[in-house]
Fold this sequence. Notes:
Blueprint: E1 5-11, H1 15-26, E2 33-39, H2 47-53, E3 59-63, H3 69-80, E4 85-88, E5 94-95, H4 99-109, E6 113-123, H5 133-141, E7 148-151, H6 152-161, E8 171-173, H7 174-177, H8 190-200, E9 204-216, H9 222-228, H10 231-250, H11 253-261, H12 263-278, H13 282-302
Parallel strand pairs: 1-2, 1-4, 2-3, 6-9
Antiparallel strand pairs: 4-8, 5-9, 6-8, 7-9
Helix pairs in contact: 6-8, 6-11, 8-10, 10-11, 12-13
Amino acid sequence: MSARITFAIPFHRGLSYLRETIESVRAQRMTAWRCIVLDDRGEPGGVADLVASFGDARITYHDNQARLGIVGNWNRGLDLATTELVTLLHADDRLLPDYCDVIFALADAQPRAVALCCDAEIIDAQGRPRFSLADAVKRRLVPRGEPWKIEAESGLRALARGDFVMCPTLSWRRERLGARRFEPGLKQAQDLEMLSRLLLDGEMIAGTRRRAYAYRRHSESATAVQTEDLSRFEEEIAVMDRIATHARERGFHDAAHVAERKAILRLHLAVRIAADLASLRGRAALRKLHFLTRIGGERGRSSK
């Protein structure tokens, strides 16, 4: 059977996680896949040897030669793939054994969708199930229907209300995606920016509530670090403002209003502040409170 999906795995660090990730690809019930490990020189040596140790011709190693960063790696993965679908698999996550089954069925049922996604279980650094309030809230924001679909202004409004799409589960349909790529320079909101741009271009995104992915949340991840130093919020604010501008240009005024409010960002910060206070991290809470106040001020100015 010829390959239908490529798993492109950008690697920065953490060989033990990477081994787990590749093993989860090899454990797929459906075998119509290829896997490319993109070595971004995040950890000297060992990656090529790890890939070779599997002795599986479907898994190949790609040396970037120079560091490309997060978005550069994601775009390189899309460029190297030749299959119908491509999933940018995080090097510290795991696929559940039926990921291919779920995504293939969704792709067959939704031939117009430019991107397909599923739900994910949340695991900690040791791979144990853990509760994540952020992900629990996201699940409440998922549109009705199974499978669910978003497009046009209603889809953009739903996405701006809260980015409920579990980004690493996304599988991109190369033919519909064409030459469109993630925007260079972004580190945390590149998925939101890309998905909103696709919706503005008239594309449709489809998903399922079935869980076929294991997303690892741990303190050393880029998401955790950039959440704590607030840089992810700076980036998300800029992207939401851009979404609002482009939505208004398109005549999507309701979606623009939702993006301008940034309610989900303010809620996220409020939850973080409460967690800091509960842990007696007063200085960290105060820093986030000042940031939250700034978002409120920007909202007031933009509405005048």
